[in-house]
Amino acid sequence: xxxxxxxxxxxxxxxxxxxxxxxxxxxxxxxxxxxxxxxxxxxxxxxxxxxxxxxxxxxxxxxxxxxxxxxxxxxxxxxxxxxxxxxxxxxxxxxxxxxxxxxxxxxxxxxxxxxxxxxxxxxxxxxxxxxxxxxxxxxxxxxxxxxxxxxxxxxxxxxxxxxxxxxxxxxxxxxxxxxxxxxxxxxxxxxxxxxxxxxxxxxxxxxxxxxxxxxxxxxxxxxxxxxxxxxxxxxxxxxxxxxxxxxxxxxxxxxxxxxxxxxxxxxxxxxxxxxxxxxxxxxxxxxxxxxxxxxxxxxxxxxxxxxxxxxxxxxxxxxxxxxxxxxxxxxxxxxxxxxxxxxxxxxxxxxxxxxxxxxxxxxxxxxxxxxxxxxxxxxxxxxxxxxxxxxxxxxxxxxxxxxxxxxxxxxxxxxxxxxxxxxxxxxxxxxxxxxxxxxxxxxxxxxxxxxxxxxxxxxxxxxxxxxxxxxxxxxxxxxxxxxxxxxxxxxxxxxxxxxxxx
Length: 502
Known about the structure:
Strand content: 15-25%
Largest sheet: 7 strands, parallel
Distance between the termini: 42 Å
Structural class: alpha/beta
Shape: globular
Number of helices: 13
């Protein structure tokens, strides 16, 4: 069955229709289906945009599939078949116009480069639901502050605080679990990351199905379409260290050192677009070889960490532009962990306002310090979607002065919700290792983490969630506790049987 996509852009439509009386007199129907930033004067006649098709695939039957693998195969087959059929006439038109385009199936849309005349023709087609901007606007050069190299020389405080090491003592380290990260890239041969990289077998590297670069233009040190993992900023390498980092010696900075990781570069020196983020999600659902060929859903990860946000200046002028993408990934049985963002304060609520953190399908993470205080800039909830309040963040984790890996074999401390989210992705890996049944139960995984957390309250009220109750819109359900989550899992065996671990 085909269903119509419910567009939040109807709000934009309403705005356009109530513009000046002169605009009313001259407005054409196609204008209501175009991001108005695409119609503003530009230095170039051509611009980048996303043609979102009016119909999206119905994945409701995915829940009936008995395993994560079955879900992934079903979602991949359904999405690719639906997009291939429904985009056919639009592709024919684009080719006739000589336009540059790239098809996507993770949600039913097409990236296009063209002029306003082409935009008008596309927006006039009944198959098209809405045309979004995909322009990356940089108002200032992006500079990176110098990093001070420092090794933790032992178990990192944040890993000890959340009791991950107590699970290691039980032999639970994330074995058999694949963690994915999309970020600024990764220094794959860092001593604390190399042995955990799925593309390394201990002798040689094979980056096919283990790495993808969604940046197709040169500019940074990584160039375009890097054939091996590369990090042009250092942010991604830091987040991956918190997920799996362990050099086999004195530096233990990761939650799940027994897990394997794969990666995708979704940003060019810290800036992405809706299509670069979507491309990484698509690749994770069905990893490909380095040529982008032969997609294989059987190699999909269990969890994806997303320590990034897509604000309006990166093209997410409609904050719900990536919601269908995230929903589809979750339908495939892959958990989506997202950093809450760093625009919060003790006096401001509702600051979780950018993709993917504001989506109900994302597991959103705020940041705390070593004393379980909220990081002052950790974004607060809740999220208001229409008339519905969505409780965010879901959870919190250490994110202040977290020491982790940085390129060229170093270590450094960093602060932000970007540092908190990887703890949760690593915890998911530990719990799946503890009981592989959980790999097919995202809701149960998230519930275990939430209801075992160290409940924290706040003097800050963010209606309708009082700060003195748990959950609240500052800490969510509280700060994660790996050992408590495992104990809760043991006490819940009557809901699903424990599978003997090898």
